[in-house]
Fold:
Amino acid sequence: MRYFWQSAALVLTGLVFKALADGGDFNITSPLDHGVYVAGQMLPITYVLLGDTTDLELEIFLKPSSELNSSTVTVAQPADVSEDPSSIVTIDNRTYWQHSYNYKIPETAPAGSYYVIFSSFGYNTTVPISIRAYTPMPSTSLAPSTPSSSASGILSDGSSSSVHSSSASHMLGDPRPSILVTVMMLGSFLIVPLFEKF
Structure:
């Protein structure tokens, strides 16, 4: 049983933290593999350079899936691979260089599947993501309002929705990613005491 929990913890850790680029020159820490993002908001892109970057050439693209009527967008060409002191990070007592971009997804980007492509010397590392349609935030009124314990509205697909809660935060998207992170965090706190018993 002990080895099962150790294996499970290692697998979960590997899924959450990073993806190694196909060329082995950098680790991609964001976007999240199969992460969900929203048009009109930022797409975080972060990577850590693993070694000498003297000859490294890196480009980053956002490519829509073949079902979408959209074209590939250049995020960074060339992407930053400098060994600037301001981008130093220390991992396991070793020095690396981390670079980030916050790409604003156009409000007009069609909803669907996309790929963030990291291209270096003929190696393409692809991170699949989903982009949801842009939904403008309702304008706020300066008139005082009375608090309510329920909220209702029309969803982007035309159906109506009703939420009976003091908070309307559940209306802002798919709760599964936040639930997954919460479960994984709780799991790590619960698994560690199990290891200490053995």
The CA atoms of residues 89 and 96 lie 5 Å apart. Residues 176-197 form the longest helix (22 residues). The chain has a mean pLDDT of 72. The longest strand covers residues 94-104.
